[in-house]
Amino acid sequence: MGTVSSLMRLRGNPPAEEAPAAGDGEAAEAGPAFVREEQGVEQARITTRRVGRKRSASPAGPSAKLSRESLPQDTAKSPFRRRGESDVKICAFGEEWCLHKCYLCRSGYFASMFSGAWRETDMTTIEMQMPDENIDRESFYEALVYLYSNSIPIPPHRIIAVLSTACMLQLDEVIQQCEEMMKASLTADTVCSYYYSAEDYGLQCVQSVCRQWLLDNLMTRQNDEILQEINLDLMKELVASSDLLVFEVEIDLYTILKKWMFLQLEPTWSGSPRELLTAADLCFAKCKSDANGAPFLETDQGRAFVSVFQRVRLPYIICDLPSAQIIDHDALIPASWVSPIYKDLWLALLRAEQSRELGPVDIHVSDVSGTSMRCAGQLQRDEQCSWTWSGFNFGWDLVVQYINRRIIFRRSALNKSCGFGVSLLWQRKIAFRLRVISLDTKGTAVLRRDTNYHVLCLRKDQELEVISLENEDIIFPMYVACNFLYLPGGSGHSRESGRSPRR
């Protein structure tokens, strides 16, 4: 027979007929063998490129698998020790393996190849080229061993290489094993590479776990290496999410994005973490000067980042004077974005101060998921603590208290320990959602409680127990994250600002 050069693709291949069964004698002698080159054999070479899709299960089951029990005992123990009666030679990475179709057909890829639908079905020598740079000689070799022994070692630093090879060869059990290992070994060092690999290879569960890790840790860990690895599309998704743990308030997210944007523009920067913000400010100040004061996001360099900064919730930044001054001084964001928000905020304040309407009784999550104020406080120890997110736009001061493992909301307009109330109006309504999150040293959530969205209506000095953690095992520090939206009586939405927790 001739030799065929087959370019392996990430996705699967066309559905195959049932894989040919091996005879008893062939199975008894089966065992892949490694050879360098065979001299004196002149064969025709055919080049074929084949892009397929994942193979459908045959009547005998997915990929016509052979169980470990059906393997010869000596082959299962030492699969690469004997050549046996090889009926196919696989050439890859400059090496050759004398193998057996009956074992290769445990792979969906090879089962399709040898089913009769492909030109390679009757070929005795198949030359394979690897288009996926993650596949290397070692991972391919281990995958061949797996087809004979049903066992494959997956060291943590080799997960991506093994996964890419398993996806190409359609080894579902190996893919599942990689998936579990990725979820178990998720850290700051691996989260981005795992996320992108899960995206490439269609592991939606791993992708979701990585995304949640980033939502929990992006702002709490302040890891510059993670910022370097997050691409534009991923950052856009994180910033837009109401599940992002914004620690402490929205202006702090803006500061993180300044650092991230600088690192995307200067990937070789190697200063210390303490120098990063200063370096970013100097860089953008120079850009401002070179562009004659034009906002950075309107320059050629800055336009790529517009979609990310459009998802920053500016109303919760410019309602605070120091934060508004930072936005104005940096000149990253065009004035055309900000000016309409000032008008909306002023009208919202007037409604909050001069209207006695209570607002809607019911509210749907879709009404607040993209516009709510995001803020979070950190509890370092299991001790009584209180803080406030200022009432400028609520028309009240909402005090958050942690007492005896309970989170309590209190409206206390004249509470001296938590600041001065800006309104003595008798009653106000907000939509709120509270989350309590404890993270271990790897950044994995070991405690997560979520109230979902509710409408809160409090009079002066009235309080509400929002959540109780009396029966929970808590690891400190613990984060208390809130989403708020003021519900005015008239049309439109008001905005709210934030302050840090204080004891």
UniProtKB/TrEMBL annotation:
GO terms for cellular component: nucleus. InterPro entries: BTB/POZ_dom, Gcl-like, SKP1/BTB/POZ_sf. PROSITE patterns: BTB. Keywords: Developmental protein. Pfam families: BTB. Residues 86-156 form the BTB domain. It comes from the Eukaryota. Residues 47-56 have a biased composition (Basic residues). Gene3D superfamilies: Potassium Channel Kv1.1, Chain A (3.30.710.10). Residues 12-33 have a biased composition (Low complexity). Residues 1-80 are annotated as: Disordered. This is Germ cell-less protein-like 1. It comes from Cricetulus griseus (Chinese hamster).
